[in-house]
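Morning F.,

Quick status update on the modeling queue. The single chain you submitted on Monday has been processed. Sequence for confirmation:
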Amino acid sequence: MSEGNTNSDSSVNDLDFLRMDWHKFLKARRSGGGFKLLENYKNNDPEENDFPETHVLWIQGAQCTGCSESLLDASNPELLRAFEILNIDLERHEAFLAHQGLFVDGEPANTSELNSEILLDEISERGNYILMVEGAIANGPQGSGKYFMSGNRSSKEMFKKAAQNADLIIAVGTCAAYGGINTANSDIVDILDYRGVAFTKKDPSKGMLKVLGIDKPVINIPGCPPHPDWIIFTLSAIISGNIKIPDDLPEVLDEFGRPKVFFPPDHNVHKDCPRKEFFNKKEFDNCVGGEKCLLKMGCQAFLAHADCALRKWNDGHSYCVQAGSPCIACVEPDFPDNARPLYSSKKNKRRKEADQ
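Structure tokens below.
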């Protein structure tokens, strides 16, 4: 790390990101250090990079592109600045890089410069990259994966090709991590058979990696969508060497593969809710737009283990509950079944224990 940083106190510079405990992290964030960790990694010499180039391959399954859109909203540092600091080469991302697929007689045509399918092949065969997955991966019908196609390939086939030579896989968003909305209880959920990367809901035996027989280290960054800090800071911890892959993962990840620093097992969104005084006084809103507790509007903040209430969104200005929307616990493996019907009061025995 560079010396002489005047934007954050010296104690912050000594913190190992993703190794610090929850209280130290919050202290760092309040001092500005939580956002300055990336800046501290930058070499003072603009002609010299601190880090070797890190190649990133980003593929998309069944998703709404909301996770990518959230990443574009990164601030302190902004996304391109973060990539510059960390020396990241984003080699393939269908939405960001405007790739196209050209096919002749069912086979990819032209070169990787013009054909993202050939580019995927070249990157996958070369290896030496972090694979970032957005969206759930279809396994149906009957294990073919053809309920989600890109050109003449299923997302299952694309994922298999990309996962085999990846150094690490990061599942971005709840759909990639646990299946998300694609695995919600329905009459057709078993036919579609969507999977998360290493989990389907809470079950690691049903993740797509297990289906394909591939063993790779995985970090899950859930959320619908995830906060951009969760993605960028995780990348910074890996690239800076603050965590070693795969040796440190059992220490820094929870039982569902989430970084504990962002998704603390012993801390929920309710504990730092700005409406908590109304909860304590048993004053509840019955419609959207009020200022009181949103429990009767179906708020699931008791069940959501994330730092949303402290980190906040939109450059640290607000987050769902502060803006008037009940928390839907979108970071949890059983989302959305854990929260629906939305905006409806439901009994839950864990609520009684939440404030103890």
